[in-house]
Amino acid sequence: MQHDTLQQWLDWLEHQHPKLIDLGLERVSAVAERLGLISPTATVVTVAGTNGKGSFVHSLGALLKASGQRAGLFTSPHLLAFNERILVDGQQASDNTIMLAFDAIFQASQQLDISLSYFEYSTLAAFYVFNQDNLDFWVLEVGLGGRLDAVNILTPDYAVITSIGLDHMEYLGDTREKIAFEKCGILREQTPFICLEPDAPDVLSAAFSSHHSLVIERDFEVVESSDTVTLTDRIRQCQIVVPQTGLSPASVSGALMLATHWLDIELGDDTAISAALASHQLAARFQRFAVDGIEVVADVAHNPQSAELLHQRLSQLPLKDGAKRIAVFTMLNDKDMNAVIDCLKDDFKAWFTAELDNPRARLASDVANAIHNRGIHMISVSKNLRQAFARARSLCQPDDQIVIFGSFFVVAELLPKLLPYAKLPSIE
Predict the structure, then answer these.
(1) Which of 69, 98, 159, 346 has the most C-beta neighbours closer than 10 Å?
(2) Per residue in 159-193, pLDDT tens?
(3) In the chain, where the domains are located
(4) What pairs with residue 325 in β-bridges?
(5) Is 287-424 CATH 1.10.287.470?
(6) Burial 128-141 (b: 16+ CB within 10 A, else e)
(7) CATH number of 6-278
């Protein structure tokens, strides 16, 4: 198919498949087989979990790069540009490189008379790009669940499960046990894996005994302070300066465990490890900006588990006397909006919501009603997020704080307005 720009390809991908989310391995496996992508020579690390997947992928990527290993990283979704999803040696794949991958996938799928979703194209594009290079590692973030996700067509050499929370319940089930079962689908017989979920459901706990595993609070302990994380296991104790980059301490610790126990790569001392991690920025994970005397926080919290983490971080960042905190917020239809609001309802003086230009978005009026039903009366509804943000700023005085959250799509729309401003330190 002839498309002259990457954006033209992406516009076509958004509408060419009958389902936005189409779980299952048969179609995508067939196309991968045709392209010779099903058995990479590189070491494959597959990462599943409700939250923390991207943080783990980037933490491990930083460590691999610092040790001289060549790695391809695949994550989703993106914030500002599709190229963010596909990194080789820490660099985003170029438009032309991705377009060549898309064209190859299109030709193969046409030959097989197979239709693929946007995410399936994205996944195979990453595999295709990585396969063109002589990489040591492929580090892959599962998109949704695990068992039936396109990433799972590959057999991982190592697997990681970062967390188990309630999200995507219409696809994965309505309990943590059911969701854990889907995420455990990335495990193969005897696949070594790391678990960063301290409250593991039974199906996940059962995998500990049948696989070579490293489990948080069983095999290693993570202790956080204001600017460091101390990791203790049976071999060593290390104290890492937490980088101001959005990487979570649990993900950093899990990546260190994988690197030092199983990958056998040389990382140097604690100072060298801290420097390596500081080189990777993960945007919109409690990312703070100073905007004309007002602090603005951008965070992609979009489910109850990540909302609880956002609440904890806000509690660590008390406002000055008389200052107020304002939410700019909306969510997608398939997210547990009521649980998210319940978690954060006491953190904000006022809520600004708006229509979001996304087919999965909730109506702003529905969001406002959900907020109002919790006894909150300072609510503003705007026609779009830019207007909502402008109205929130107009209500602010110096030392006030605006928090933008609810979806990757919410943050993606407003992040370009924030990037020109000075960044403030993280509180990880």
Answers:
(1) 159
(2) 999 999 999 999 999 999 999 999 999 999 889 99
(3) 6-278, 287-424
(4) 401
(5) no
(6) bbbbeeebbbbbbb
(7) 3.40.1190.10
